[in-house]
């Protein structure tokens, strides 16, 4: 049985299909005083929001099955006061515009940490951004390419030929890229 949360702790719903990333973010939010509920899919997120409407929500854009934009729409329908941040590894102007049109406060790319999310929330509310302890260091182009290849390969369930087709690469070129170690940040 869950202990009652302090009345001043903001409630946050964190919905992302990457379990390790989701739990890392949840732990960091809890350390900053948030009451965090987590979900790995749109359906789990909706069930959690129906039990207790969160004040804040961080929603991944791409998840198996229904996507994050559908969840944004449904969370806003459940409680229009829920402040939503959309998080994605596949940013585009069109999806950013759509997320904001559906009611998200902000749209930020992965990789992101709690400080990035809190700053995005502050920007969405028109508040000054909280100070960040260390300067953001963008991943190298090689690292971003490697992460994108890994995500596409996962989306193709490990099928190298299909991943190569989606990436616009020759299958053997993709195999050579996969044999390399991941580049450092």
Automatic annotation (TrEMBL):
SMART domains: REC. The modification 4-aspartylphosphate is found at residue 60. One of its GO terms (cellular component) is cytosol. SUPFAM superfamilies: CheY-like, Homeodomain-like. InterPro entries: CheY-like_superfamily, Homeodomain-like_sf, HTH_Fis, Sig_transdc_resp-reg_receiver, WalR-like. Keywords: DNA-binding, Phosphoprotein, Transcription, Transcription regulation, Two-component regulatory system. One of its GO terms (molecular function) is transcription cis-regulatory region binding. It holds the Pfam family HTH_8. Residues 11-125 form the Response regulatory domain. GO terms for biological process: regulation of DNA-templated transcription. PANTHER family: REGULATOR OF RPOS (PTHR48111), TWO-COMPONENT RESPONSE REGULATOR ORR33 (PTHR48111:SF1). This is Two-component system, response regulator RegA. The lineage of its organism: Bacteria, Pseudomonadati, Myxococcota, Myxococcia, Myxococcales.
